[in-house]
Amino acid sequence: MIKMMKQINLKIPLSLFEAAQRYVENFGFRNIQDLTTKSMREKIFERNEYDENFSPEEVTLVDVLIKVSLEKNKVVSEAELMKTLR
User: Fold this and answer.
1) How much is the pLDDT for 85?
2) Are 42 and 35 in contact (CB under 8 A)?
């Protein structure tokens, strides 16, 4: 399976950059990019109980469901959605 990648540019305050650089050096990351990627994964996937292993077809299905729900004004709360999905 080939993972698609997207490059971004990120502006951060100098103090945050310097703290990130120290963190990288102290905790064995290769660079700030690795720290940023790991931090984003933790925030988005691990702590959110989100499964990042969706197939492209599943992602498309979710996108269509969201679009149709918004168009028909049939949006439910996250709690209701999670209850239904479980």
Assistant:
1) 67
2) no
Residue with tokens 């999905």, as numbered in its chain: 85
Same domain, 67 and 44: no
27 and 37, same domain (yes or no): yes
If you write DSSP's letter for every residue of 29-80 in order, what string do you get? -SSHHHHHHHHHHIIIIITTT--TT--HHHHHHHHHHHHHHHHTT----HHH
Q: What is the pLDDT of residues 24-67, one digit of tens each?
A: 999 999 999 999 999 998 888 776 555 557 777 877 887 788 77
Q: Domain range holding 30? A: 11-52
8 Å CB contact between 25 and 17: no
